[in-house]
Amino acid sequence: MGGQHPLISLAFCVEKGGMTVGETAIYARRIRQRWEMWSAIRRAGIDSRLYCFADERKFLKHMDWERTNVMFLELGDQKSYVLIKKLRRQYPRLNIIAYSREAQYAQELLNMQVSGYLTEKPTPERMRMEFEHLYFPA
């Protein structure tokens, strides 16, 4: 099952005290990670259109056509770091928030200037905090 999952590729827009983010993309190979992030963002009440991807090509095509402000990326293998470097070069003002249950990659990610790094299961409170502390205003 590749590409966008029909349930979690729905766009939504929820009113939240002046915080508008525009577009948010989630790139994670495992459906559970996409669902956890999507669900936490939605429950946090962030005003954003949200898109989820499991396929890197479809994700990159989306990035070429849409103005995405925030991107959550699940760290898997070395390809994840290559993708972050590519996105950082191509979209220097994109807020990239990496997600991994292992904190060992934190320093390397900070050197790559990611906007945030999740090491725990995404919660609405944590998602609100990530959106409130973006490097680049959305």
Report mean pLDDT, rounded to a whole number.
79
Largest sheet properties: 5 strands, parallel
Low-confidence stretches: 1-18
Quick one: how many beta strands? 5
Q: Which structural class should the secondary elements be placed in?
A: alpha/beta
N-to-C SSE string, H for helix and E for strand: EHEHEHEHEH
Q: Please, how many helices?
A: 5
What overall form do the CA principal axes indicate?
Answer: globular
Give the CA-CA distance, first to last residue. Answer: 31 Å
Helix content: 25-40%
Radius of gyration: 14 Å
- Percent range for β-strand residues: 15-25%
Main sheet: strand order:
2-1-3-4-5
Give structural attributes.
five-stranded parallel beta sheet; alpha/beta; disordered N terminus; 138 residues
Topology of this protein?
Elements: E1 20-27, H1 31-44, E2 47-53, H2 56-65, E3 70-74, H3 78-90, E4 95-99, H4 106-111, E5 116-118, H5 124-132
Parallel strand pairs: 1-2, 1-3, 3-4, 4-5
